[in-house]
Write a structure and sequence with these properties.
Length: 368
């Protein structure tokens, strides 16, 4: 196959089966027969072909420093070897790789999953002064560099608009669910079971959720991985943990089973700069599966939850409010069922990947 039809996605930090990169974007692009799709990763799990996507592994990074300085070089070397017409990268540290590929005459897309300057403001290991200085410098440097690339794909309209106002070609491709994955799930609404699926660290609201169920007749299924041992010890020592069914990391099939037995899903993230303007993937997956959703009361979340009457929005820091919201759904399962059905309809009609992938195809058709 000629270089004009070869597409390569690059990531130094995301897992090879990342929902946005692999499950949605790469597999969707394989549907377009003239594209040969490769995905370069750095996880140490070796090369493979999955769903016709050629996954190429440059080896696992030994540390964050190693990832930034050495893994990026390996990814650039592999990108050159693949000699593709278009490169689509997913991590800010790969901007330098994108610029080098652009200098070689390649078409290059950056996929901005998050607002990088605002993400810096959420880093707990930086003091307030450092956060503001670093965030400001990154915001200026980011725009200067990204103007040199061909296109910026963003995960939300808010991030898209930031680039457009600075004269950068950008389109939002939202992390809405694939219709064929969860839409056929039919929760029973018989048991007092709720769920949280996702990363497990402090700003994801895990502590507040576990405390909120202490006095409720409920089972909370948690599926995810703790990224800090001390935080794991703190959470598992809470009184409410005895009502938790902890599943650890769950693959997509296991997630389906969890959604099937739950009546509501929680996505009560803390009001950090990187969350208040980002779309949480799990919120849409809960909606797709027909679960009522309990979400943080951020304006961008309320647009979906209140606008489609598919759940409730709460102050994610207020444990009593979270507790009351869970209790209300448990005591009014028919109302919870109606919320779930409303969410499913909204996904079918407005918020699904089949709509978003058309934007991806249009961008690629324009560049390749």
């Amino acid at each position: 196959m000629s270089a004009s039809t070869k597409i390569t996605h690059l990531t130094s930090a995301h897992p090879r089966y990342d929902t946005r990169i692999f499950v949605k974007e790469c597999i969707s692009l394989v549907k377009v027969k003239e594209y040969e799709v490769s995905l370069v990763v750095a996880d140490g799990q070796g090369d493979e072909v999955n769903n016709k996507v050629h996954i190429i592994d440059v080896g696992k990074s030994l540390s964050r420093q190693d990832r930034i300085f050495n893994t990026t070089k390996k990814i650039f070397k592999k990108a050159i070897e693949l000699d593709s017409a278009l490169y689509h990268f997913h991590d800010p540290e790969l901007i330098v790789v994108g610029l080098k590929l652009k200098e070689l005459g390649k078409k290059v897309i950056f996929d901005a999953h998050e607002d990088l300057p605002k993400q810096v403001m959420s880093k707990h290991y930086l003091n307030t002064f450092s956060k503001h200085i670093i965030s400001f410098l990154i915001s200026k440097f980011e725009i200067y560099l990204l103007k040199k690339l061909d296109y910026i794909i963003s995960a939300t309209p808010i991030i898209r608009d930031k680039f457009i106002v600075n004269g950068i070609s950008s389109q939002d491709i939202n992390n809405f669910p694939k219709l064929d994955e969860f839409i056929d799930i039919q929760p029973s609404f018989k048991n007092n079971t709720i769920c949280y699926i996702g990363l497990l660290y402090d700003t994801r609201g895990i502590k507040e959720i576990v405390k909120a169920i202490e006095n409720l007749d409920v089972k909370l299924i948690i599926a995810g991985k703790f990224y800090d041992k001390s935080f794991e010890n703190e959470i598992t020592a809470l009184k409410g943990w005895k009502k938790v069914d902890f599943r650890g990391f769950a693959d997509r099939e296991e997630v389906k089973l969890i959604l099937q037995e739950s009546i509501a899903g929680l996505v009560t993230l803390h009001p950090t700069p990187s969350y208040v303007e980002a779309y949480p993937v799990k919120m849409f997956e809960y909606m797709s599966a027909g679960l009522a959703t309990i979400a943080s009361d951020f304006p961008i979340y309320k647009e979906f939850i209140d606008g489609n009457k598919c759940g409730v929005c709460v102050d994610p820091i207020n444990i009593l409010v979270i507790e009351k919201s869970i209790e209300n759904l448990l005591q009014n399962k028919e109302e919870a069922r109606e919320m779930g059905e409303n969410g499913k309809i909204a996904i079918e009609e407005k918020y699904n990947w089949s709509i978003e992938e058309k934007k991806l195809f249009e961008i690629y058709s324009e560049l390749v």
